[in-house]
Automatic annotation (TrEMBL):
Function summary: Involved in peptide bond synthesis. Stimulates efficient translation and peptide-bond synthesis on native or reconstituted 70S ribosomes in vitro. Probably functions indirectly by altering the affinity of the ribosome for aminoacyl-tRNA, thus increasing their reactivity as acceptors for peptidyl transferase.
Protein name in the entry: Elongation factor P
Keyword Cytoplasm applies: yes
Gene3D superfamilies tied to this protein: 2.30.30.30, Nucleic acid-binding proteins
Matching PANTHER family: ELONGATION FACTOR P, ELONGATION FACTOR P (EF-P) FAMILY PROTEIN
Entries under Pfam families matching the protein: EFP (PF01132), EFP_N (PF08207), Elong-fact-P_C (PF09285)
Molecular-function GO terms, alphabetical: translation elongation factor activity
SMART domains, alphabetized: EFP, Elong-fact-P_C
Location (main, coarse): cytoplasm
CDD domains: S1_EF-P_repeat_1, S1_EF-P_repeat_2
Species: Paenibacillus gallinarum
């Protein structure tokens, strides 16, 4: 058990039978009434974000999440196959479980699998990945007064706003948390 007063960003907790990670929290001490903790939690089973308020000092269960290194092997229809790097066991996840992550996954990429008591909840991507631009419009000279951007499609199908100097074939570093262009590789 853990007190809500000890919340930290990234902490995993069990609330009402679901597993959540703490995205944001705020301790509130109103002038009248009892103190409380307002939090923003992400459900690790379905990806939904909820806001919950707890009384100060309230205790909730702490969820022990396991992270293991795995390799993404291939996709077939609606299933994606991964292999555990230590035991070489293979398992599959559906596209529904990997909605956001599919924008960044390439074959043979190493990621971490998140599991709770044997139940696979999803994967953790690295903070940034290198992806090749497969389609973009040419930049127009003289159109750069205010840091203009254009649309570029990368090899995974993700559309990203990039500076005008980016061309097809360039390899970009993309931030996986926000899905935005960081720099050229």
């Amino acid at each position: 058990m853990i007190s809500v007063n000890d919340f930290k960003t990234g902490l995993t907790v069990e609330v009402d039978g679901d597993i959540f990670t703490v995205l944001d929290f705020q301790h509130v001490k109103p002038g009248k009434g009892a103190a409380f903790v307002r939090s923003k939690l992400k459900n690790l089973r379905n990806g939904n974000t909820v806001e919950k308020t707890f009384r100060a000092g309230e205790t909730i269960g702490r969820a022990q999440i396991d992270n293991r290194g795995v390799s993404y092997l291939y996709a077939s229809a609606d299933e994606h196959t991964f292999m555990d790097n230590e035991t070489y066991d293979q398992f599959t996840l559906t596209s529904d479980q990997l909605k956001w992550e599919l924008n960044f996954l390439k074959e043979n990429m190493n990621v971490n699998i998140i599991s709770y008591k044997g139940e696979i909840l999803g994967i953790n991507l690295p903070n940034s990945v290198e992806l090749k631009v497969i389609e973009t419009e040419p930049g127009i000279k003289g159109n750069t007064a205010t840091g203009a951007t254009k649309n570029a499609k990368v090899e995974t199908g993700l559309n990203v706003q990039v500076p005008l100097f980016i061309n097809e074939g360039d390899v970009l570093i993309i931030d996986t948390r926000e899905g935005k262009y960081s720099s050229r590789a």
